[in-house]
Amino acid sequence: MNYFIIGDVHGCYFTFCKMLEHWDSDQELLVSVGDLIDRGNYSALMVQKCMELSQANNNALFIKGNHEAEFVQHVIYGYNKNWVDQCGQKTLDDFKAAGMELNPIAEWMKAMPLKFESDTLLVSHAGISEIQNPYDENHNDSVLWNRKALKNIGKMQIHGHTPLKRDTPAYTASSNSWNIDTGACYGYGLTALRVNAEGVVTEHLFVKTDPRDMA
Fold first, then answer.
1. Range 158-180 average pLDDT
2. Nearest-CA neighbor of 15 among 211, 165, 204?
3. Within its chain, how far is the Cα of 186 from the centroid?
4. Going by C-beta distance under 8 Å and a sequence separation of 6 or more, which residues neighbour residue 55?
5. Rounded to 5°, angle at Cα 75 from 124 and 127
6. In this predicted model, what pLDDT tens digit does every residue of 69-95 receive, in sequence order?
7. Contacts of 184 (CB under 8 A, 6+ apart)
8. Distance of CA 207 to the CA centre of its chain
């Protein structure tokens, strides 16, 4: 299996759709590193599109990002003031305008996996650092929130979460890891990597942010 791994989208729907034109859905597993929502203009359209892709076939996988986790916390477990004040109110308004009920969205996001892993590759939202349990969603250094240096886990890591704000991803040799969050919602663009079954990056793809997507 080959892989098509897409960085943080943050509501940049038209940019995301442009990137999908490069995806070979017959030969590649699409893996998103999470943060589909917030900041950009089209969280509702992004969620609709990704739910359709995940339900229509088995070759699209959407990993949970911290923004999905914050949405879940707000809808299912109680008011999340930090998220609402930071960027969540715009997202809530967008879902309301689209006539979308929040609970089904939250249940879908709650069930998102925290990683995709093969023999040669691990994809998560923020990457694995030196922490005993990187999959504890509430820990500041978990795969949802980590901003510390990543450790070498014996296979390549691909992640987002920390925006680079440039048109190329960043490779760190010591941890054999790629950060592919190039800051789509900040007007830079969206990055994807093609990775073959042996865990080798075969191509970088970059789509400039569509002006319609920007806040």
1. 98
2. 211
3. 15
4. none
5. 10
6. 999 999 999 999 999 999 999 999 999
7. 7, 8, 9, 10, 12, 15, 40, 190, 209, 213
8. 16
Output the six-digit token pair for 35. Answer: 């943060």
In 3D space, the residue among 66, 105, 111 whose CA is nearest the CA of residue 86 turns out to be 66
In this structure, are residues 192 and 6 in contact, taking their beta carbons and an 8 Å threshold? yes
Distances (CA, A) of 48 to 21, 51, 110, 200: 18, 5, 16, 31
pTM above 0.70, yes or no: yes
Q: Residue 131 has which token pair?
A: 């922490």
Partnered with residue 189 across adjacent β-strands are 208
**CA distance readout (Å), 196 to 39, 109, 119, 157:** 32, 27, 12, 14
